[in-house]
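Hi V.,

You were right to ask for the full record rather than a summary. Here it is.
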Amino acid sequence: MTGSVGRHGAGIALLVALGACSTVGEAPKGDAAYAVIPPAQPVAADYRIGPDDILRIQIYHEPGLSLEDARVSAAGTVRLPLVGDVPVAGLSAGEAADVIAGRLGQRYLVSPQVTIFVKTAVARRITVDGEVREPGLFPIEGRIGLLQAVALAKGPTRLARLGQIVVVREGEAGRQAAMFDLAAIRKGAAPDPEILPGDVVIVGLSRAKAILGGALLAVPALATGFIALDGKH
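Predicted structure:
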């Protein structure tokens, strides 16, 4: 425990040494990087419905009202018989079921029982770019780490710089970035950080610089352990 705290302290010290601004090449590494993109945890997160997701909506004893492939609109709603558009974006499946049951129970059904299953979670997507075989936008299910994220793009190219994997994440503090060593993760010498929906994974520092447009990285509050992209040159 003492060694871990010491390493974390060293990561924080590195951030202090960087000063107010630095380049993407100085994105935090090691413990400082894992401070904001931590290893995956065993407890699954409750998925929140998003636009373009496809839902199965089952209303007990009401097959005429049930829907097999209900697509969530760009506005975050689903259209159901009798009640029309119902907002569901940002809700869990259980919460959305309660909202729909409430709408149906107001005028049409007595104590309706509604079950929702997310058939296609389009809102859970990540981007993998840079020195990979097939860069692109990939839907994800459940929780995944950096190794699996890179594998979605058919793996790194033969000359990819595995020690320079940049992960970009949008958060309350704005767009932030951290750098990881994929080779060390593969060997079990470093934890596999969790990749969240909306993250951008870029293999290779030179490609990251090109994709990010040479943006400077402003050091945020030390508690984040991340360098924030401020978009300035």
